[in-house]
């Protein structure tokens, strides 16, 4: 993790987390507009005359859809179909793409892709000169436009203005990510905080959970098929494109209905946040899944995403001896083709 957040007064709070002296930060996101440094995210740039062709053979996205407007979700898989990383693809120039993803996976994914990149006219680099700022709230789109002079895009779309690029993510409140040079960070932060309250990035991660959106971290590499985190239900897999690494396994699991685990939303009855990978046990004490992500919400309740078996289980489910309650996902568990999503502006 880079230390650019120190420039705007953030305090490091464990791995890939920062905080401010703002009381009840999750509550602030319910009642108003907040701004947060997304230090847990980063950019891997892939550029060159063969960049699109290279990525087409490695990623689940149909690269022609990444047109500078639509910014599709994608994932990179090992040969057995397990995910090495998931990301959002941003086209920033005719021969240049940014992969927005978890910071901890930037180096591992770059090392993996370099094994194939030698056969293409393409180069990769970590864009540690960029900062990612998140805005959450009903007034966030208007604030972004007023303070940074950037037009807010639609969900899973992007808008570029000079050196700044903005993408929009789903969630219980409007959510936007502004990517900008670190050199511009302090001026932009000062402009935004005139009307938005600074909060730690755990608030953003909580809203990812509430959106049913799971981002892999380094400890989860090579553990899940894309469908196990509902990636096809979010438009993150094109089943209409040609081959890519792991494609045969991913397609077979889809068309033969062989997905045995799914991402689910849960709340805990206790308020201790479990660690990622904690076992999810049924009423008989048998392991049925594991925690994928967990954060404390505005009511001091723990919300989490878990990868859980699709088989019927004996409930209640527990994590570390604490009972869980199932919550609804905000999307149907059915295939959403990115080719359809690309034209959706709602």
From TrEMBL:
InterPro entries: YgfZ/GCV_T_CS, YgfZ/GcvT. PANTHER family: TRANSFERASE CAF17, MITOCHONDRIAL-RELATED. This is Uncharacterized protein. GO terms for biological process: iron-sulfur cluster assembly.
């Amino acid at each position: 993790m880079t230390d650019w957040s120190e420039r705007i007064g953030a305090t490091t709070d464990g791995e890939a987390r920062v905080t401010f002296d703002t009381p009840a930060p999750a509550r602030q996101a319910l009642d108003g507009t907040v701004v947060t440094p997304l230090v847990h995210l980063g950019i891997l740039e892939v550029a060159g005359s063969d960049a699109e062709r290279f990525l087409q053979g490695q990623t689940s996205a149909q690269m022609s859809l990444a047109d500078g407007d639509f910014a599709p979700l994608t994932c990179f898989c090992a040969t057995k179909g397990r995910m090495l990383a998931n990301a959002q693809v941003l086209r920033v120039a005719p021969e240049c793409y940014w992969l927005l993803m978890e910071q901890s996976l930037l180096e591992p994914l770059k090392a993996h892709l370099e094994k194939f990149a030698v056969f293409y006219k393409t180069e990769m680099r970590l864009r540690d000169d960029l900062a990612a700022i998140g805005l959450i709230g009903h007034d966030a789109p208007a604030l972004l436009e007023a303070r940074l002079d950037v037009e807010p895009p639609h969900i899973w779309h992007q808008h570029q203005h000079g050196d700044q690029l903005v993408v929009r993510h789903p969630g219980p409140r409007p959510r936007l990510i502004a990517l900008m040079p670190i050199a511009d960070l302090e001026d932009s932060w000062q402009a935004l905080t005139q009307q938005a309250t600074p909060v730690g990035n755990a608030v953003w991660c909580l809203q990812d959970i509430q959106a049913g959106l799971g981002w892999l971290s380094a400890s989860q590499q090579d553990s899940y098929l894309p469908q196990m985190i509902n990636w096809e239900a979010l438009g993150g897999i094109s089943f209409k494109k040609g081959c890519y690494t792991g494609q045969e396994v991913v397609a077979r699991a889809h068309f033969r209905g062989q997905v045995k685990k799914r991402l689910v939303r849960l709340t805990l009855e206790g308020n201790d946040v479990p660690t990622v990978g904690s076992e999810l046990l049924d009423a008989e004490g048998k392991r049925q899944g594991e925690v994928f992500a967990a954060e404390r919400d505005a009511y001091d309740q723990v919300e989490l995403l878990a990868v859980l078996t699709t088989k019927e289980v004996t409930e209640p489910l527990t994590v570390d001896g604490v009972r869980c309650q199932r919550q609804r996902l905000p999307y149907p568990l059915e295939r959403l083709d990115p080719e359809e999503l690309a034209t959706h502006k709602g």
